[in-house]
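Q: What would this chain look like folded?
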Amino acid sequence: MTADAANTPGTPDTPVRVAFRSAATLAVFTAVSTLFLATSYTLTRPVMEASVRAKKMRAIEEILPPGIFDNDISADILSLDSELSPALIAPTTFYRGRKNGAPAVLVVETSARGGYGGPIGLLIGVRADGVVTGVRVTEHRETPGLGDYIDLKKDKNRKNPWIRRFDALSFDARPESEWKVKKDGGSFDFIAGATLSPRAVVRAVRDTLKFVAEHRDALYGAPEKDGAAAPHPQPQGDPS
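A: My prediction, written as structure tokens:
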């Protein structure tokens, strides 16, 4: 080996070599990041799911009188993937409360179609005799300060919140034609300039109560979760 050869510097980087090293580094970084995120999700998923269940149970308990059921209502569930009516968006989940093994109450988790800002998430409590224990809006994108009064937490009328107008009602407590806001010829109040939000909620509650009244025994008697023996909703006309 000559002195000149010994003093020759290493082979200079070429654009191809630089690109290859950059790609390899990026691939390793991506793999490590993906592994980290997957591991974090796996470890935190049970905690997140438990938090969601606890939040939902608090909302359910808020609309039910104390002691109305003695089973694990969070585990006695029936889900239907079919839309119950044009006013409702599938899926609909029924939490079934029982007292000493007998039907006591249903909590219906569903979404109303027709809100100003999109679907409106609802929880509707219905006793075995068809009487409403309470209704709560769980999710919405209605206009702040206008249509969001359907949400108990947003309603400025603390003494008589709009959503409590459903308390103690039943489907047959008034003619079906009155299950509308007053602007549409019904009996439910609304705030001027914000009709779409209450209209969607009233329709959803009406159709839910009607469905429960027509299929009470099947809803309580169907196998848990899969709904194999659950009632199959029949197509109905346009909501009004």
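The first strand starts at residue 77 and ends at 80.
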